[in-house]
Write a structure and sequence with these properties.
It comes from Streptomyces parvulus. The protein has 269 residues and is an alpha/beta fold. The protein is 37% helix and 18% strand. Strand 1, helix 1 and strand 2 form a beta-alpha-beta unit. Helix 1 crosses helix 6 and helix 3 runs parallel beside helix 4. It is globular, with a radius of gyration of 19 Å. The termini are far apart. Bound molecules: NADP nicotinamide-adenine-dinucleotide phosphate (NAP). NADP nicotinamide-adenine-dinucleotide phosphate binds next to helix 1, strand 2 and strand 5.
């Protein structure tokens, strides 16, 4: 058994849950480029990749395949997530990891997990708890909303004839590529505990994000309709508790740069 404070040995596979997702798609090549073996847990059967990446078929919500996924692993980079039940999925992973003698759990959570009262964010906070109380060495990084997810949201809004603008809602979007680089560094180091949040370089209101998207596609701006977000979550967003305004690691790629890149790739219409 290796010492918990030592980083993963390159010949021991690093398990990446969510390795097939947006964030995982950026992290996995960084780990393999650093000379590490990577194993990915996915719900769909997949053939091993040319770069040696291996796949284990399984599901964190049913528990199928999870014991096989963690077998012989020193470090788990837990990126799998969905709209619901991330807490259950994380607890299943943690139980299997503890049984298998995993030494380092790295988890990506979301900025505002403890301050914005949304059911989905509660599952992220519960996931953090499962990790920090696991008895295994751990690292938790909270990230702001990715530019990629922001783009999906903005594309839908940009098509509306009138733009609904929730008063006071601001975002600090960050490129998944930069979050991935930070996570790869953390996964290859010893457990670090809760590390500073990672955010994008700018804070934008929703209307500004949509208008920048319309501008980059040469579309006319639309009339705006102010709307009020109801309830406690609305109050939390209006008071900016979904933002990390101090102490964060601030990534470089701006929303405008990300949009320009996505246009150059032919994405984000
Ligand atoms: N998107 C954001 O703005 C944002 C911001 C901060 C933090 N995060 C967190 O970052 C993580 C990755 O986000 P993402 O945007 O890259 O996600 P994504 O593109 O939606 O990908 C989700 C990944 O989770 C895996 N997955 C989902 N349910 C699973 C299950 N039951 N068992 C095993 N694997 C499962 C999927 O694998 P298969 O489909 O191959 O099974 C897929 O690889 C999530 O935990 C998310 O909460 C996201």
């Amino acid at each position: 058994m290796t010492n918990p404070s030592t980083p993963s040995n390159p010949s021991t596979p690093i398990l990446v849950t969510g390795g097939t997702g947006t964030l995982g798609g950026h992290v996995v090549p960084l780990l393999t480029a650093a000379g590490h073996r990577v194993r990915i847990l996915s719900r769909r059967p997949r053939a091993a990749a040319d770069d040696g990446t291996e796949y284990v078929t399984g599901d964190l919500l049913t528990g199928a395949g999870v014991a096989d996924a963690v077998a012989g692993v020193h470090t788990v980079l837990h990126l799998a997530g969905g709209p619901k039940r991330d807490d259950e999925a994380t607890r299943t992973l943690v139980r299997a990891a503890a049984r298998a003698g995993v030494r380092h759990l790295v988890y990506v959570s979301v900025v505002g997990a403890d301050t914005v009262p949304l059911a989905w964010l509660r599952t992220k906070l519960e996931s953090e708890r499962a990790i920090t109380e696991s008895g295994i060495g751990w690292t938790v990084l909270r990230a702001a909303q990715f530019h990629e997810l922001t783009l999906t949201m903005v594309e839908k809004m940009a098509r509306l004839p009138v733009l609904p603008v929730p008063g006071g809602l601001r975002l600090q979007p960050v490129a998944a590529r930069e979050v991935a680089a930070r996570l790869a560094d953390l996964a290859l180091a010893a457990p670090s505990g809760r590390v500073p949040d990672i955010t994008g370089p700018e804070v934008h209101g929703l209307a500004a994000l949509v208008e920048a998207h319309r501008d980059v596609h040469g579309r006319r701006r639309r009339p705006k309709l102010p709307v009020r977000m109801p309830g406690r979550a609305g109050r939390a967003y209006r008071s900016g508790t979904n933002l990390t305004v101090s102490g964060a690691l601030v990534a470089k790629t701006t929303w405008a740069e990300f949009l320009a890149e996505s246009v150059a790739r032919g994405a984000g219409r």
